Amino acid sequence: MSRRATSGGEERRAVTIRDVAAHAGVSVATVSRILSGTYPSAPATRGKVMRAVRELDYVANANARGLAGASNRSVAIIVNSVVSPHYAHVAQGVQTQAALEGKLCIVGTTGGDPERELATVQLMRQEHAECVILVGNVVNNDAYRERMAEYARALAAAGSQLVLCGRPTLGPDVPALVIEYDNTGGAYAITSHLLSAGHRRILFLGRHEGWTTPGSRVAGYRNALADFGVPHDPGLEIDGTMERSEGYRMIRRRLAAGPPDFTAVFAGNDLIAAGARQALREHGLRIPDDISMVGFDDLPTAADIDLTTVHVPHEELGRTAVRMALRRGSGEAGMTEHVMLGTHIVVRDSVRVLRRPS
Amino acid sequence: MSRRATSGGEERRAVTIRDVAAHAGVSVATVSRILSGTYPSAPATRGKVMRAVRELDYVANANARGLAGASNRSVAIIVNSVVSPHYAHVAQGVQTQAALEGKLCIVGTTGGDPERELATVQLMRQEHAECVILVGNVVNNDAYRERMAEYARALAAAGSQLVLCGRPTLGPDVPALVIEYDNTGGAYAITSHLLSAGHRRILFLGRHEGWTTPGSRVAGYRNALADFGVPHDPGLEIDGTMERSEGYRMIRRRLAAGPPDFTAVFAGNDLIAAGARQALREHGLRIPDDISMVGFDDLPTAADIDLTTVHVPHEELGRTAVRMALRRGSGEAGMTEHVMLGTHIVVRDSVRVLRRPS
C-alpha cells in the first residue's frame, strides 16, 4: 500500500514551499521561518501556514531547498557502529560536506556483519545515493576485494559511486575511489618520539593479525625500532581489538604475569590508551611518572587524559570522500582516484624523558 | 535512468543466496561463508561462487536474510550529529535492536537544520522505513509541536510510525510514540549528593532557556536546593550549550571575573564537565581537592576523568524505541505509547565532603 502511495506521489508534481506560501497568502520567507520554528511568529500567521501545509500534504511531498524530489540527492556512509568515535567523526565530515553541497546524509550501520553490509549497500543503491562511502579497518583478503569490486560495479551501474575511506586500493579495474590516511607514518613518528626520549622497551597494545589498520600501525612501530637500532621483541606486541575494554584487559593480564618489563606503552588507539591507563592506575602506576604512554587518533578522550597521540584528520577524510565522489560525478577534470592524507604527532603530557642508558 | 533500472528490478523476482548457491553448485552455507570473507575458502570454490554472484547480479539484487526486498525492512533514527556521544549511543541501541528484529538501521543527520530534518523524514518515508525515531533536546513551542504532528500524520499515512526519544509527548490526538528518561529526577539526585556533602554554592553550567533537556536538569537542581533549604542564587546558573568547548568557555569566563565563589560545579552534561575541568586545571584548581564536580550522562569520558555523574540508559532508549514501534506495528496488545526510563547516580571520585558550616 505504501509503495503504491509513493508511486502516485512521484507522478504528481512535488509540492514546494512556494505552493504553501501561495496557498496561505504569505511570503516564502514567512513559511520557512514558521516551519523552522527558530523565530517568533504571530499565532494567526502560523495557523494559516500550518493549515496550508496540511491541506497540501507538504511534509509528505517535501521539497525543501530542492533536497527531496531530485533523483540524486543524498550521500551515504556505511560504518560498523556510530559509537566508535573515529567512525562518528568521519560521518560528521561527510554530513558537513553533504550540507555544503545541498545533499542529505544518511548513515548505514552494520554491526560488522557482511550480510547487513550487503543489504545496506543495496538499500542505498535503491535510494539513489549519489555515493556510498565505506569506512575503516578490514581484512584485505581476496573475498573482501571481490565483495568490494561487486559493490563498486553494482553502484556504478546505478549511477552511484563507491568510495573506500581508510582502506587500501582495489586495483585499476575497479570503479572505486580511495581516500586513506597515513597510519604507518604516524606510528613511525610517535614510536620515534618515545625512542628519542630514551625508551627502549615499548609495549604495543592492539596487534590484530591480518587487519589493515592495526597492521599498518605495527609496521610503523617496527620500522622505527629498526631505524633506532633497537632489537624487535615480539613478546612486546600484544594482540587485541580497538576498544577501551581491550586496553584494560591487555594491561591487567600483562601485570598479572609479573612487574612491568616495559617503560612505555604504544596503545593502538586512544580508546585502548584510556582502558590501559585505568588498569595501570589500579596497579598504582602513574602516567608519565612510572610508565609513559602514547596513543593514536587524537580523539577528545586524549585531551581528557593528557595523552600524547597521533592526530588523524577524521572529519577531513569524510569531507574529502564526498568532494571526490561529487566532483567525479560532475565530470570535473583533474580529480585523482586515490588520496592519502597526512597524520602528525600531538604532544601532551604522557611521556617522560628517561636518562639515556649508559 | 537509475530510477527506471530499479523499477525493472522490482518487477523481477529478487535473486537470493539460494540462486547463487544453485548456480555455483555449492551449498548456501558455502556462499554465505565466502561472501562474508571471515573464513578461509579454496580459491576454486571462491571463483565459482563469485562468478555466480556476477552472472546473477546478486549484489544489485541482494536479498540477504530477507532484509532487502521486503517493503518494510529498515528502522530509521534522525539526529543532529553522530559526534554527540549521547546520540551515538542511542543510535547504537537502535542498531542492536534492529539487528535482533532482522531489520536494517539507517541514521539520518541534520546538523540541527529543520529543513534538512524535514527532507530526511521524507526520504525515510519514501524508503518505507518501518519507524522514524527523532532524538533529543528541543524548544517545545507551538511551531515544534505542529511540525512533529505533521511528521507523525505523514508517516502514519505511509504505514510508518514516528517515535520521539528523550522528548515530551505531543498530546493524545497525534500518532506518535514517546520514550523519555528522567532528567529532572537525575538532576535532583546528583544535586542532593553535593548538598549532602556540605556544598551550598553549586555552579550550574549549561542553562539554555526554553530547551527541554537543560530545562529539566535545571529544574531538578532547583528542586533539590529548595528541599535542602538552600537559597536559590540565579547568579550561579550559567548559560551555555552542551559541548565540551562550552564548559571550557564558561569556567574561563567565570574565573576571569574573580576567584571562585562556589565550592562545587554541576555540569549540565559530561562533555561540559570535561571542558570545565580543563579550564579549572589551567587555573591550578584540582578536582575534588579544590572544587567538586558532577556531570550528567555517564559517557565514557566520565570514567576517564573519574567523574561522579548521572547514568542515562542511552542504548536502552534506542532499543525500547524500536521495540515499541515494531510491537505497535504488529498490533500487539498492551503496548503503552509513553515510556519513562529511570536514571541513577554513579559515584566516582570528583566530590569532596566538606565540613558542615558551623
TrEMBL record, chains A, B:
Domain of life: Bacteria
Region forming the signal peptide: none
Start and end residues of each HTH lacI-type domain: 15-69
MF terms (GO), sorted A to Z: DNA-binding transcription factor activity; transcription cis-regulatory region binding
Classification via InterPro entries: HTH_LacI (IPR000843), LacI/GalR-like_sensor (IPR046335), Lambda_DNA-bd_dom_sf (IPR010982), Peripla_BP_I (IPR028082)
Classification via CDD domains: HTH_LacI, PBP1_LacI_sugar_binding-like
Keyword tags: DNA-binding, Transcription, Transcription regulation
Name of the protein in question: LacI family DNA-binding transcriptional regulator
Organism of this sequence: Nonomuraea cypriaca
Lineage, highest ranks first: Bacteria, Bacillati, Actinomycetota, Actinomycetes, Streptosporangiales
